[in-house]
Amino acid sequence: MAVRLKHLLAVPVPHYQLNYSQRPASFAKKSHSQSRLSASKMATSGIDRTAPSPTKIIDSHLHVWASPQEAADKYPYFPGQEPTLPGNVDFLLECMEEGGVDGALIVQPINHKFDHSLVTSVLKKYPTKFVGCCLANPAEDGSGVKLLEHLVLKDGYGAVRFNPYLWPSGQQMTNEVGKAIFSRAGELGVPVGFMCMKGLSLHVSEIEKLCTEFPSTVVLLDHLAFCRPPLNDDESLAFSELLKLSRFPQVYVKFSALFRVSRMPFPYQDLSHPLSQIVSSFGANRVMWGSDFPFVVPQCGYKGAKDAVTHIANQVPLLSSELEWIMGKTVMQLFQGQWLQS
């Protein structure tokens, strides 16, 4: 079912060749106590994917953590992970209002590690503004599956993040625990995000194995899978591996944390060609913008994180409809029922 769009060519496929009617499965969140539909069921559930939806700007990747006062009172930082930047929710809301951003996916920060209580409190206070992405616990006792179930079914989280550097030394995300969490995420209907901070090439075989064995689990690749505009053979290979993942219809790419992957200052225009290739391979409906707040704030400001995408898109160039997918429609399609009232 996947549409492979000449992903190894330097010249992107013309926009009219992109078939947006063949979008992979998405998710419908019913309530905090109900399981979400699996991707395979959603694919055959007859959802009208052509119906108009309100255009919103949704940030697919940011973090919040306690203020120093909140940490002292109720939500302590994990020892050794005290933040160096302000990342409290009030600051985030100010930035979102200034930037004209309607909603966001909050990714559990390492600053609180597996203690999700701070993010959970934010989700409960702003249920139409935010969706939560919890952090997978790959403990060898298998407790990570129970944690995932609790956070999804009781606290309403809509996604889970795999950080390969939290796995026990010498073990991969394809071990028994990793497979159990990944499989259960698919059953619960929540996407799995991958943070490949040390390079996609180190982890691509694991991602491919998981996608092949569990095709109902949707995958989100954080920050272009940390692929920078290639300057050498190794970087070209990594970017090629990223594009090849488009053959799995359940894989999506976050065009996020642009300051981390660009070699240029704002507005990061060296990312125009990579974005063109990603859209040609995956389709704009499998690409989503993310800021990486609060780390982006000292780089170009939160509003700048959003505005950079428009600058880059104009260089590609992208159709206005494609930019709408990237800036909100893709993530809204994945988390159906969210952000409708924000």
From TrEMBL:
Q: Where is the Amidohydrolase-related domain?
A: 58-330
This chain's source organism reads Carya illinoinensis (Pecan)
Q: Does the keyword Lyase apply?
A: yes
Pfam families in the cross-refs: Amidohydro_2 (PF04909)
The protein's name in its UniProt record: Amidohydrolase-related domain-containing protein
> Which keywords appear in this protein's UniProt record, sorted alphabetically?
Decarboxylase, Lyase
Instruction: Report if keyword Lyase is assigned.
Output: yes
Q: Which GO terms describe its molecular function?
A: carboxy-lyase activity; hydrolase activity
Q: Which SUPFAM superfamilies match?
A: Metallo-dependent hydrolases (SSF51556)
